[in-house]
Automatic annotation (TrEMBL):
Family affiliation: Belongs to the SELO family.
UniProt keywords, alphabetically: ATP-binding, Magnesium, Metal-binding, Nucleotide-binding, Nucleotidyltransferase, Signal, Transferase
UniProt GO molecular function: AMPylase activity; ATP binding; metal ion binding
Cofactor: Mg(2+)
PANTHER family according to UniProt: PROTEIN ADENYLYLTRANSFERASE SELO, MITOCHONDRIAL (PTHR32057)
Name the record gives this protein: Selenoprotein O
InterPro entries for the chain: SelO
GO cellular component: chloroplast thylakoid
Species this chain originates from: Gossypium lobatum
Signal peptide (residue range): 1-17
Length: 512
């Protein structure tokens, strides 16, 4: 991936990074090295793209469990779509380029700190192998934006920025909900939009062969049958449910907490979308939420994500039901498939993380309990686990040696609890029959060494706010190879320092 800096005295832009290999911007006849002086003008929205018809999308959403009505792209403007040489369709969207018809009372802008967070995290997620929207470039606007970061009556001026993000589609559950919420008259829009989405983004569903057997028993007693070849919308929502389940399973695997899982932040393609107050787990805490607005109920905490996304799928299914596209039986079936897919994928991921062949519920539950009691760092723990040898003869006093660096400050009783767990784990390793070397190699492919911890992001932001983007670049480079050992970069695996626990670092409010 190229790392590109453009300096232009007009907007003081800084193009940090581009994904040119992925979306092949040469399709637009731009100079690939971005030496064109109008690049920042195009990617700040200051100058239109020839042939493009920019728009902002109207959508609604359930926010914190309550229908919030119309929201829409208040600060996102789609520039247009491009087709690359592989005939893939990519949508380019500016976030923070100014007001749209859906900005309501707000300014349509974004601050540098939240833009760097979205930029870095969407790239970090991509390199972790997790479906996500991506970031093409970040432009400093050179203008100040006023934000009351903690909504406590202390507004401050901050540098503004614009991220150009890229995805095959930015359609959300809420893009459909808004039309169904308006009653019978607008229900046709739901089906037109669903037809569009299926045709462009799920073409295999349009082409499902009627001879294929895709009928499934469903319901508590397994008496009802849902046939996915007879209704493309049913097949569609089942696929969305499964993609979402698979996404959430991967989040849980790396300890990612989205922070604002409202239905307007749920992609129909199963992508991680809208990076706001997200956080990777440091110390394992199932009730961790990175969102200050979420603190009272912790609706969006780490452990709730699977259930919340099931709730979101249920809302989306109700929308399709209201538009008479699917039956209640098909809606429940989609939710059921979400649950099954999530459990299958989550168990498979945890099993891989442990380097085992078979899911062992008791072993996993005991481990998660131990991690929570001792507030062990989630990422570093799993990375260290591959150092344990499948040797039942290890003396009791030496069982915890490979985990010494991650089991910090634990007393005698807790040491015993951990030693007992390690003993059971070693038994499972022995039973699996895989060599230590082979297991370590496979575990290191699923247990990242480097994740974008909030304090790392904040250090990069602090420097960037005074004009030094060096740390943003270094962090980006490290996060591009999260599963590799990167000699000299070990400081990026450190636990958060004391200053990171101040509000605004490990916890943030919604939009900024
Ligand atoms: P979010 O919490 O970022 O998902 O945003 C919720 C809603 O508020 C979405 O409709 C956003 O487009 C909108 N929004 C967030 N920030 C701004 C802003 N600065 N100006 C206008 N609309 C915004
Ligand atoms: Mg949003």
């Amino acid at each position: 991936m190229a790392l590109i800096v453009i300096d232009c005295c007009f907007l003081y832009p800084l193009v940090l990074h581009c994904v040119v290999q992925v979306i092949n911007l040469t399709a637009l006849h731009w100079n690939c090295r971005f030496e064109r002086p109008d690049f920042p003008l195009k990617f700040s929205g200051a100058s239109p793209l020839t042939g493009a018809v920019p728009y902002a999308q109207c959508y609604g959403g359930h926010q914190f469990g309550t229908w919030a009505g119309q929201l829409g792209d208040g600060r996102a403007i789609t520039l247009g779509e491009i087709l690359n040489s592989k005939s893939e369709r990519w949508e380019l969207q500016l976030k923070g380029a100014g007001k749209t018809p859906y900005s309501r009372f707000a300014d349509g802008l974004a601050v540098l700190r939240s833009s760097i967070r979205e930029f870095l995290c969407s790239e970090a997620m991509h390199f972790l192998g997790i479906p996500t929207t991506r970031a093409l470039c970040l432009v400093n606007t050179g203008k100040l934006v006023t934000r009351d970061m903690f909504y406590d009556g202390n507004p401050k001026e901050e540098p503004g920025a614009i991220v150009c993000r890229v995805a095959q589609s930015f359609l959300r559950f809420g893009s459909f909900q808004i039309h169904a919420s308006k009653g019978e008259e607008d229900l046709g829009i739901v089906s037109t939009l669903a037809d569009y989405a299926i045709r462009h983004h799920f073409p295999h569903i349009e082409n499902i062969s009627k001879s294929e057997t895709l009928s499934f028993s469903t319901g508590d007693n397994g008496q009802s049958v849902v046939d996915l070849t007879s209704n493309k919308y049913a097949a569609w929502i089942v696929e969305i449910a499964e993609r979402t389940a698979s996404l959430v399973a991967r989040w849980q695997g790396v300890g990612f907490t989205h922070g604002v899982l409202n239905t307007d932040n749920m992609s129909i393609l199963g992508l991680t979308i809208d990076y706001g107050p997200f956080g990777f787990l440091d110390a394992f805490d199932p009730s961790y939420t990175p969102n200050t607005t979420d603190l009272p109920g912790r609706r969006y905490c780490f452990a709730n994500q699977p259930d919340i996304c099931s709730w979101n799928i249920t809302q989306f299914a109700s929308t399709l039901m209201a538009a008479h596209l699917i039956s209640d039986k098909e809606a429940s079936y989609a939710v059921e498939r979400y649950g099954t897919k999530f459990m299958d994928e989550y168990q498979a991921i945890i099993t891989q993380k442990l380097g085992l062949q078979k899911y062992n519920k008791q072993l996993v539950n005991k481990l998660l309990n131990n991690l929570a009691v001792d507030k062990v760092d989630y990422t570093n723990f799993f990375r260290s686990l591959s150092n344990i040898k499948a040797d039942p003869g290890i003396p009791e006093g030496e069982l915890l040696v490979p985990l010494k660096a991650v089991l910090l400050d634990i007393g005698k009783e807790r040491k015993e609890a951990w030693a007992s767990w390690v003993q059971s784990y070693i038994q499972e390793l022995v039973a699996s029959g895989i060599s230590d070397e082979e297991r370590k190699a496979s575990m290191d492919l699923v247990n990242p060494k480097y994740v974008l911890r909030n304090y790392l992001c904040q250090s990069a932001i602090d420097a960037a706010e005074i004009g030094d983007f060096g740390e943003v670049r270094r962090l980006l480079k490290v996060m591009e190879r999260p599963y590799d050992e990167q000699p000299g970069m070990e400081k990026y695996t450190r636990l958060p320092p004391a200053w990171a626990y101040r509000p605004g670092v490990c916890m943030l409010s919604c939009s900024s």
